[in-house]
Write a structure and sequence with these properties.
Helices cover 32% and strands 40% of the residues. It has 223 residues and is an alpha+beta fold. A hairpin with a 3-residue loop joins β6 and β7. The longest helix has 16 residues. The protein is globular, with a radius of gyration of 17 Å.
């Protein structure tokens, strides 16, 4: 299996893009080869944000095989409609290295057991469903978490994503190497403090962490 995550930016047709959060659901559900998918909004700026970015949306899919993904991106009517309305699309093709936790009661990312190169770029997805009783506490810690990843060595790009504002949040980040990821995840610093706090304060009722090798990425400009 292969995972893709796309970030689609609009300078026009923003209302159409917003409606796709629900209208595209049956399209993705009936797309050949899709075994898991999520239609996601994004946060303003680069990290978590209380404010949505109405110019950018994301589609996350797990596919039975890479050819299914390529057929969708290059040939499907839906992909063509996106190309006619969007400004750009950034696609990441991902091979799962490691994943733990669940997303909506599912464990969608299955490790391929493939050995990766030290030079491979790494993609990270973190996702959480936040306990409603801990929302205020969680969001008070968001600025610190965003600064931690922004200032981390080796991070190349990151964006907040989510299904529902405030209560279901995620991030996708791109790193220059697996060593940079390990240094950030396991070193002493703000990120480690926040991770410990989430456990002790029971912030989440469901969470997921997945690490990927980025097989390739491309950005397409339509206008």
């Amino acid at each position: 299996m292969i995972t893709t995550i796309s970030f689609i930016k609009y300078t026009q047709n923003k209302y159409w893009a917003f409606t796709q959060m629900s209208l595209a659901f049956p399209i993705l559900k009936s797309t050949p080869g899709v075994v898991f998918f999520k239609l996601l909004g994004t946060g303003a700026g680069a990290g978590f944000s209380l404010f949505p970015d109405f110019s950018t949306y994301s589609i996350l899919c797990v596919w039975e095989k890479e050819l299914d993904a390529l057929n969708f991106f290059n040939k499907s009517d839906y992909s063509i409609s996106i190309s006619q309305k969007a400004f750009s699309r950034k696609d990441f093709f991902l091979n799962t290295i490691k994943s733990h936790g669940e997303w909506g009661g599912e464990s969608p990312f299955i490790s391929s057991k493939k050995r990766i190169s030290k030079d491979s770029r790494i993609g990270i997805i973190t996702r959480a469903s936040i306990n409603k009783s801990r929302l205020l506490e969680f969001w008070k810690s968001v600025p610190k978490a965003s600064r931690a990843i922004k200032n981390a060595n080796g991070v190349m790009w990151f964006k907040g994503i989510g299904e529902w504002p405030l209560i279901q949040q995620a991030t996708f980040s791109v790193w220059d190497s697996i060593e940079s990821v390990k240094s950030f995840a396991y070193g002493n610093g703000p990120h480690s403090e926040i991770v410990q706090k989430t456990k002790h304060r029971n912030w989440y009722n469901e969470d997921l962490f997945a690490r990927f090798e980025i097989i390739r990425s491309e950005q397409i400009f339509f206008k």
